[in-house]
Structure formats: C-alpha cells, structure tokens
C-alpha cells in the first residue's frame, strides 16, 4: 500500500525526514510514533500526496504522488489532527457535501450518509448542528466523513487526542471494524496504549529517522524487560540507584521513583526488602510500549 525508500523532506536547511524506509502492507494497521518534531506529520503529508518529497522514492497504492496525486487522493481517507468540519452544515449535510467532492451523485451521497451515520453511531444526530456536538461525536463524524469515498487506505493523525476514555474506546471499536473490513490504517499517536491496541506494526521516529520497527510485542521484547518494578521512597530519603543494579537488567532513577527493569518483579521486590529497604510504595507491572518509547527517544520534552 505504501513503499518508501530513502524518503526525505527538507524545509530550506532543515531536514524534517532524513532518508527513511517504510513499507505498509495491505490490510494492516501501521503506526508512526515519535516525540514532537520527529517527522511523523511530514511523512504523513507526503503519503497523503499533499506535500512533495524532497528526495527518495515513494509509492502509494502503486503510484507516484509527484505525478499521480489526484488519483491517489481519490482512494484515500484522511482524518486530520484537528477536526475541520463545516459548522454551518448539519451532521448529515457534512457527509453529503463531502461525498459530492468525490463525484458521488446526490442519491449516492444520501445512501452513504445514512450508512456512515449508523457506523459512527450518530444516526439520532443526523439533523443536528455540528457546533454543539461533544468532542467524541465530532471525532466520529470526522472519521465517518473520511470514509465517504470507500478508501482503501485511511490516514489518521492523532485520532483520539483530547477525548475521554469512553470516547477513545468507542473510536477504537470503529477502527477495529474498518480493519476487519479490509481497510488499511496508518496512525500517528502520542498514546502508547492506543498504539498497542491498534497497530500490527509500527515505527518509532526521532529526529527525522526511524530508530525502531516491529510489532508492539517485538519492540517490548527487544528494548525492555518482561516486568518493571517501581519503587517510591519517602521524601528526603535518598537511595542511590547503584544499590539495585544487581537486581535488574537496567535501573532508571527518576525524581519521584526508581524503576527496575527485570524479568521477575516480585523476586526483585523481595530482595529490596531483604536489604532492609522499605519503599513508601511499590508496583510490579508489565513492560509497555511507553517504556520502549521513552528509552529510545528520551524523557526530555521536545517543542
């Protein structure tokens, strides 16, 4: 569905995407993870055929965006990070007008609107104005609108940012249904649990380069341990992290806690107690994609 080789994007002297290789297979959910400024959005815009590449090779749906942009865009669905719905139109009219952009007849857009409103669970809001809708409803409408042309490839930029947990899970359910219907998904997200839930494979980008690639399980296995022991000690009680280096594969000291990356968290906690140390609280949890992400990209905030 997407094949990129040495894909590069420069803005003047700034190189936003620095020669990446990407392959997205038909029917999968593929994710781009990375901190701000990693190059995710620039890559997505090139795939969406709205921003020309500076260098390298790129094929989307077997075509070159530089020469076949309109044909590619006709077969894509795009969900931008910010909803850009037409507030002066009703919910149903947003779908019908958008369908006309793709050459659908009025009868086709009416039928498609009914189908998509049901899919997005917005049938009871068909004649409502857009502005009073909740954030979750607007997001579902934006996704429904992106499906009006029956796209083979759906691009989603931060699809659930700002939504409450219930709305996020409802959107995940809609996206799972699309994937089951054979739609290929490409997702950028800041939510690591979202990437674990949705993505079959993903890449982690940092500084315009790909620093890791694989399934969520593969990345966790490769870059982290099976479990993590989190220890919090009373304020003012400074415990050198070196005291735990023989108990874990890796030890990370944070301002409020110490993390021990280990294959057996409970056994490590027993050893901590055996040394006479009494943390204020302790937690043994499984390693997550967030642990991998922070290890690969660091904990420093990037603007």
Question: What do these coordinates show?
Answer:
- By secondary structure, the chain is α/β, with parallel strands linked by helices.
- The chain folds into 2 domains: 2-213, Rossmann fold (3-Layer(aba) Sandwich); 225-286, Alpha-Beta Plaits, CATH 3.30.70.
- The chain contains 10 helices and 13 strands.
- It has helices at residues 40-47, 65-73, 91-101, 106-119, 135-146, 165-180, 192-198, 216-223, 265-274, 289-297; strands at 2-11, 14-24, 29-33, 55-60, 76-79, 153-157, 184-188, 201-206, 209-214, 227-232, 250-253, 258-262, 281-286.
- The strands form 3 sheets. It has a 6-stranded mixed β-sheet, with helices on both faces.
- A hairpin with a 4-residue loop joins strand 11 (250-253) and strand 12.
- The longest helix has 16 residues, at 165-180.
- The protein is globular, with a radius of gyration of 23 Å.
- Residues 2-232 form the ABC transporter domain.
- It is found in: Cell membrane.
- It is a peripheral membrane protein.
Topology:
Layout: E1 2-11, E2 14-24, E3 29-33, H1 40-47, E4 55-60, H2 65-73, E5 76-79, H3 91-101, H4 106-119, H5 135-146, E6 153-157, H6 165-180, E7 184-188, H7 192-198, E8 201-206, E9 209-214, H8 216-223, E10 227-232, E11 250-253, E12 258-262, H9 265-274, E13 281-286, H10 289-297
Parallel strand pairs: 3-7, 3-8, 5-6, 6-7
Antiparallel strand pairs: 1-2, 1-4, 8-9, 10-12, 10-13, 11-12
Helix pairs in contact: 3-4, 8-10
